[in-house]
Write a sequence for this structure.
């Protein structure tokens, strides 16, 4: 994370204009030197520099522009943004404040992954994505929520219903940072529905624990509602604007998804945008259903519903098929490389493809502003970008299958009672 901050700090200063924007040549450096971050960029344009508390005022205009301090993220991320800017008067201070707030979450992820998988957690702690994206956007807190949910479900000695409910609360908190942890509630509920290993943790006389599964879903939904309710009550227009902004988002260069790169020639047409607003979510849902169904089939063979494995596959489907695929989303996938025992070739190939994309996309943008390098035939940068984009897409398809066929010790090893652990430790001594 220190290297990650140093990487982004190349864009800071040395001077600042009257708005606190780094000079000279902020945009040229941000893209040309590949040190761009959303954090630094959004210092201006959302009234973050004016220290306006988000959502309580403002809204969204007819053309999709946010105003009045509203940011395009769920409420806990909005509060985090406000806190990061609280003592800042420049984009450099904002990046530093945000990094200080988020670094503990990154350390917590490393700790939980280390407790779950030992040295394999170095994939998180020393992986290139942490250098590229630690402070690219506000993703470390939401990853911490998702990882903490897995840790609680795997390591708590409470009955399955209780530890799954607590994990669902953490996933509900994750929803209030970024949306994606909510998708993991479904496989977690299916784990409870199945009754755990060989159905042993289902209530007596019950084959499928429907009440327990509904309790898990209710805990996640209830947590998300409780966190969002104060903002919805105090500033409904500003609160709902963040969701409306995302629903209106167009498939364009800023989304960086296969839908843009595959259909650039028609991406600016209204018909294409309307089609993608329907096709993309339907395909994402189909991927979720397929992953959960294959997980259920595997449960019939092994006796345990592999909720972590299924969650990993669902995330691959989301990253591939959603109309937005920002570079830092790789951080979402990285913990699953630790938690699920997929072959190392998959991991190395994905990290290489992501590295090619994560650097070349910004350099390519810089070159296009200079009127050069647009075509894949015009240089290495465009070629590296296409290798990164399509290599990553192909690998996500492969990883969807690989995850579902792999094992995760987190799924396969239910927690033992605390007393048994102590007795075993005593025997070893």
């Amino acid at each position: 994370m220190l290297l990650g901050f140093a990487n982004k700090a190349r864009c800071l200063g040395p001077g600042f204009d009257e708005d606190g924007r780094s000079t000279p040549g902020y945009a040229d450096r941000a893209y040309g030197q590949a040190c761009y971050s959303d954090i630094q960029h959004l210092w201006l344009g959302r009234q973050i520099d004016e220290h306006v508390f988000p959502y309580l005022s403002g809204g969204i205009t007819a053309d999709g522009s946010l105003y009045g301090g509203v940011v395009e993220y769920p409420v806990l991320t909005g509060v985090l943004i406000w806190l990061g800017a609280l003592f800042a008067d420049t984009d450099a201070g904002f990046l530093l404040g945000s990094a200080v707030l988020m670094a503990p979450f990154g350390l917590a992820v490393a700790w939980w992954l280390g407790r779950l998988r030992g040295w394999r957690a170095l994939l998180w702690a020393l992986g290139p994505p942490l250098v590229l994206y630690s402070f690219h956007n506000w993703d470390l807190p939401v990853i911490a929520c998702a990882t903490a949910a897995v840790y609680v479900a795997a390591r708590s000695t409470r009955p399955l219903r209780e530890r799954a409910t607590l994990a669902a609360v953490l996933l509900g908190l994750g929803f209030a940072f970024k949306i994606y942890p909510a998708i993991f509630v479904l496989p977690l509920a299916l784990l409870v529905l199945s009754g755990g290993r060989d159905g042993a943790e289902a209530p007596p006389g019950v084959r499928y624990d429907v009440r327990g599964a509904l309790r898990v879903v209710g805990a996640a939904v209830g947590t998300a509602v409780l966190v969002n309710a104060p903002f919805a009550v105090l500033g409904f227009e500003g609160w709902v604007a963040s969701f409306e902004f995302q629903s209106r988002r167009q498939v364009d260069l800023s989304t960086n998804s296969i839908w843009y790169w595959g259909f650039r020639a028609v991406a600016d047409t209204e018909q294409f945008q309307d089609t993608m607003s329907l096709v993309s979510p339907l395909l994402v849902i189909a991927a979720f259903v397929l992953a959960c169904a294959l997980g259920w089939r595997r449960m019939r063979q092994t006796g345990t519903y592999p909720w972590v494995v299924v969650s990993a596959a669902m995330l691959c489907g989301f990253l591939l098929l959603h109309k937005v695929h920002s570079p830092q989303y790789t951080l979402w996938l990285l913990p699953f490389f630790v938690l699920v025992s997929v072959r190392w070739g998959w991991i190395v190939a994905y990290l290489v493809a992501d590295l090619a994309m994560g650097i070349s996309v910004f350099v390519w943008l810089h070159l296009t502003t200079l009127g050069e390098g647009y075509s894949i035939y015009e240089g290495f940068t465009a070629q590296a970008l296409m290798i990164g984009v399509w290599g990553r897409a192909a690998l996500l398809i492969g990883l969807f299958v690989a995850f579902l066929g792999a094992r995760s010790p987190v799924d396969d090893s239910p927690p033992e009672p605390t007393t048994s652990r102590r007795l075993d430790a005593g025997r070893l001594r």
User: Anything to note?
Assistant: Confidence is low (pLDDT under 50) at residues 418-429. The beta strands are 15-16, 22-23, 59-60, 66-67.
